[in-house]
């Protein structure tokens, strides 16, 4: 019995030694599991990233050089280029006509690969879409962000007999200098004059500078436009502001009334200029993320703000999702002025 116990003990100790000796194997098994985890992590890290962009990008502007949209495009293009992951050029292409609808149509139908993007006049294009058959649909554009919010103003020649917007009430044959009947500023003027019972006729131009000079020369009585594009002419005394479209008066021009001061509160912010940047519908998510990030970083770039300050421009950024919400709200609000907008657009054929 004693001999049997000793044998059993020997076998037990041998098994223990074998077990201890096999611990490296156990350790290797654990290491193997860890290696498997590491391999999986490496596999995740090594997933192919988007190679976008691999060639130059085209930034389309729906107006001729010299206007506010052209200035914005020329200013931001180098910074979008700067903040893209690969070294490519962002080239500005002007494609003026039809209140920028030609450019919007072009971008809408472009291949959704990120190599064609555009700068959009939300108000003007929303009105055109409401009243006419167009190839673009603002609700389906892949929005990359809002660049700026630019309140609309009414200006006249500094020597004009019109001292207030109410002075136009009931007038006939008033000449409005415009960038075309489809422009956001023209829609603002048309709705305002409709409420004041003014009969007017347009004097159309292809760009902002020509539109302003027409009033300065005395060819036209009045014009509507963004405050940023006209500020320098107000400051040098060529133009005088009659109305500022916003919920509050401008701090630099506290004597200039807003629409609610003239009995039109519903027009305070209805037609302000939003400059948006977008791409064709169904843009791949990875490409959209790269472009949207480049736009955001551009607007956050201190060097870009220095450029804007020199140009006397201001930015007001919204990301792509918030821009989409803004577009949907604008399209809905324009329904309230459908009759005036439709009549205006029908005369632009």
Please, could you describe this protein's structure?
The protein has 349 residues and is α/β, with parallel strands linked by helices. The protein folds into two domains: 57-150 and 273-335, 3-Layer(aba) Sandwich (D-Maltodextrin-Binding Protein, domain 2), CATH 3.40.190; 152-267, D-Maltodextrin-Binding Protein, domain 2, CATH 3.40.190. It is 45% helix and 17% strand. The chain contains twelve helices and ten strands. The strands form two sheets. Strands 2-1-3-10-4 form a five-stranded mixed beta sheet, sandwiched between helices. A five-stranded mixed beta sheet has the order 7-6-8-5-9. Strand 1 (57-61), helix 3 (68-82) and strand 2 (90-94) form a beta-alpha-beta unit. Helix 3 (68-82) packs across helix 9 (285-300), helix 5 (122-131) packs across helix 6 (184-196) and helix 5 packs across helix 12. It is globular and about 65 Å long. The termini are far apart. The model is unreliable at 1-44 (pLDDT under 50).
